[in-house]
Amino acid sequence: MRHRVKGRKLNRTNSHYVATMRALSTSLIKHKKIKTTTAKAKELRTFVEPLITKAKVDNFNSRRAVARHIHDKDAMNELFSEIKDKVAERNGGYTRVIKIGTRPGDAAELSIIELVDFNDLGDKKEKTTKTKKSKKKADTEKATKAETPAEEIKDEDVQDAEVIEEKVEEPEEIKEEKTEEEPKAEEKKEDEAEGDKDKSK
Question: Which CATH number fits domain 14-120: 1.20.140.10, 3.50.50.60, 3.40.50.300, 3.90.1030.10?
Fold first, then answer.
């Protein structure tokens, strides 16, 4: 049975394991975000979060307890100043583990572990949503401008336009036919007129 076998050994001796956790926690405190294997990230979370909780109370005892594992002075100062103020109202859960796939060499699962209060993902999402909304507004404004009819032209502004009739020249063959038909039509009229006179008599 696996009683009292909590955690991961990470294929290391105890001293090597502690040295790994100290190095990772120092990097996390300094850079706020690091990339490592998923197993190390999950194990680091249980190691570094108690240190952050101790740093909330800035006194000699808590500084000695944290300095036992964090040997970098810059990281210590940052933990007891900037990070302490940021996580003052948070009761645990200071870190987040995000899986990002596998490593090409040995196919080990990789993850990003970051401090929750220092990530810029929320700000980026807000910016992207704002830019998308602004683009949508611009598109809708363009669409409304295109749909709105042009201003009606007032009668006063319209000047009387001159109608110009274009004279189409007829071909010579049609002209000759018309000239031949005209005397025939005149003869028919004269005959009809004479016939009416005879009837009247």
Answer: 3.90.1030.10
The gap from C-alpha 41 to its chain's centroid, in whole angstroms, comes to: 30
- Provide the β-strand partners of residue 114: 33, 96
The answer for residues whose C-beta is within 8 angstroms of residue 32's C-beta and 6 or more apart is 114, 115, 118, 119
E strand or H helix at 98: strand 95-102
Rounded Cα distance between 79 and 75, Å, is 6
Are 66 and 76 contacting, i.e. CB atoms less than 8 angstroms apart? yes
19-35 residue pLDDT tens: 999 999 999 999 999 99
Its pTM surpasses 0.70: no
Domain boundaries, the chain: 14-120
